Amino acid sequence: MCTVIVGFDPEAATPLVVAALRDEMRSRPWDGPDRHWPERPTLVGGRDRLAGGTWLAVDPDRPRVAALLNGWPWDGRMPWEGTYPASRGDLPLHALGRGSRDPLAGEDPTRYAPFHLLDADAHRATLYSWDGRCLDVRSLPRGVTTIVNTGLDPADPRAVRHTPEFARTRPDPDAGDGPRTVEEIWGEWPGLITRAAHETPRSPGVGLTEGDPSALIAHADLGDGQVWSTGSVTLLALDRDSLSYAFTADPADPKAWRTIEV
User: Fold this and answer.
1) In what order do the strands lie in the sheet with 64-70?
2) Are 173 and 243 in contact (CB under 8 A)?
3) What is the CA radius of gyration of the chain?
4) Going by DSSP bridges, is the β-strand pair 16-25/30-34 parallel, antiparallel, or unpaired?
5) What is the Cα–Cα distance from 125 to 64, expressed in whole angstroms?
6) Is pTM, for the whole model, over 0.85?
7) pLDDT (tens digit, 9 = 90+) per residue, 89-130?
8) What is the predicted pLDDT for the residue at 204?
């Protein structure tokens, strides 16, 4: 995952709303959100077929989310996959599988490439950032925060451009009765994502064309048929007792959203 927008306010009707955009190589196989892990039957999320982990998972029984972003090493090197003994995609599953509020309890972070791990529910939202040398733990403030691959970086072009707009339109749906549409739950947020998918994409220093560093949607043609892009988007809304989950693998199509049963 490369961008996670978090609206957190413990006093709101819906204390936590999330828009999470996953950027990955198109050739990397994955499965959409489901209960993919028999050893953790309550968890729902998308699955990376290569490593078996996930970029985001939820526990609807204790409404809670864990989302993973790739980080950058402290010395600026590229965090290439395959050079560490453990997959970062295991971290959201480990986090939600523990009763402890510390999602990294018992974990040796040196086994993982640099990462940012969001652990959040209706009461708290915390970001755990590992750069290969230091583990930084920060509570997210009340309001809307944009998390990127450099963590809580308010100077990042995506944060500068999009945080104010997502804050202005932050949804706060009541629990209500019966099924509701994506727009009834998340208001203007799906439309903001669709609009972003029709604008100049982000291709940060790679690919054959220049991109917009402030863009939410990524796309980089690396040549030889290799494309890195935003392949899916997740929307979440959590109150103290329930969780709503929507997902799309085509952010440019406003009709492609589907509700995930949890």
Assistant:
1) 30-34, 44-48, 56-59, 64-70, 115-121, 125-130, 135-139
2) no
3) 17
4) unpaired
5) 10
6) yes
7) 999 999 998 766 788 988 899 999 999 999 999 999 999 999
8) 64
Q: Which amino acid is at 110?
A: T
Tokens linked to 122: 């209706």
